[in-house]
Amino acid sequence: MTPEHPRHLAEALRRRDWLISAWPWRALAYLVSTVPIAGVLAVGLLVIGAPLLAAVNALRQHGRPPGLPLMLFLAVGSLTVLALAPIVSFPVAVVERWRLGLVDGRPLPAPRWTGLAARYRSAAGWREVAYLFCLGGIAPIAYWVFLLLVLLDIGLIASPWLAFNSTSEPGDAAQVIVVWGTVDTAGEAIPYAIVGALLVPVLWYAAGLLAAGQAAVVRWTLARPVDAAALREVARSRTRLVGAYEAERRRIERDLHDGAQPRLTSLTLQLGLARLDVGEDSPAARPLAVAHDQARGLMVMLRQLVHGIRPQSLTDLGLAGAVRELADAAPVAVTVSADLDGELPEIVETTAFFVVSEALGNVVRHAGATRAEVRLSRADGDLVVEVSDDGRGGADPSRGTGLTGLADRVAAADGRLLLASPPGGPTLVRVELPWPR
């Protein structure tokens, strides 16, 4: 969605063109369409709420409990409301999800009727009941307060006309009450009218805030709740997939390193020996030289491919040594400090290495930095990798796939990536990876 088209009301409220856009009218339509629904629900709740308030008030004033008939009525009525609420809330939730489209373009999955018994057992059903009571109990109060503010503002704007009509006849000394004072003539009422006119945009914003608040409650209460069991299964499935990927990656690396690479090296050597045995004036000399050069280029490419799967330096030197090797090869001054004790899990070690490699690559390509620092440490059962530089800052994951891909790689290892890069610098990339003892 482009910035010219906000997706929802809360986003539109932050824009400067709010008052001249269609969003205020959409908010007003949302509020007006709420009135009949909230009104019907409020009447239903008052049937129980009014006697309950009367009983509480009598208990406070006279210190005696209400009579038995009223107690029976309240008990039966309350049980009836609770019994019917999960059923009534279903159609109300359907209508509310549909009406939400007036002020929020983001989809909200529609509910599915899963049976009468499920309405009483499911958390989603009782969340809809909670919204039902909110719509019938809290919304009318908020709407009455807003309506009172609108009527007061209309009174301010219309005060000159009211004062003029009250003094239109000779000898008429009637006064017009305007909010906090009285006016005798239309001229005295003009300042009140100016204040009322200035408050009109404020009321438009208040209407937008009221509609946005109600829409947020709708989205929070009527959104489909997260299935915790399904979420745990997704996490376990991701762990299995990552483990299978690592096993397959090691197999490919081993096959390339132990199978294809030695054979290609042998082929390159044989072609080199053949070039020595063939004279330069032979017709086969040039094709043989081309084949030899291509074989050498392919061997370099294969070595880089194996290095990209798992760098040999990581296997030989460990994480700290491999990172120092990366720092030595960088065109900017890089300081490495490592405080690691114990053996790292392979996936954590590989992920940390590629984090440092990608971060240093971004420093060289985009940051315009003169120096960088890499810190490896252990904190609270996590491997903490920090890469900082003194560059221009302003790194934004939305402007490229490097940081996004890095975050995805870290998330696959059950870690998290934090980025601080204000304009003007400095930039800090912090990655936390689980490192169980």
UniProtKB/TrEMBL annotation:
It comes from Micromonospora profundi. Pfam families: HATPase_c (PF02518), HisKA_3 (PF07730), Sensor (PF13796). Gene3D superfamilies: 1.20.5.1930, Histidine kinase-like ATPase, C-terminal domain (3.30.565.10). One of its GO terms (molecular function) is protein dimerization activity. Coiled coil: none annotated. The chain crosses the membrane at residues 28-50, 70-95, 129-152, 189-212. SMART domains: HATPase_c. The keyword Protease does not apply. One of its GO terms (cellular component) is membrane. Keywords: ATP-binding, Kinase, Membrane, Nucleotide-binding, Phosphoprotein, Transferase, Transmembrane, Transmembrane helix, Two-component regulatory system. InterPro entries: HATPase_C_sf (IPR036890), HATPase_dom (IPR003594), Put_sensor_dom (IPR025828), Sensor_HK_TwoCompSys (IPR050482), Sig_transdc_His_kin_sub3_dim/P (IPR011712). It catalyses: ATP + protein L-histidine = ADP + protein N-phospho-L-histidine. It is an enzyme of class 2 (transferase). The keyword Lipoprotein does not apply. This is histidine kinase. Residues 347-437 form the Histidine kinase/HSP90-like ATPase domain.
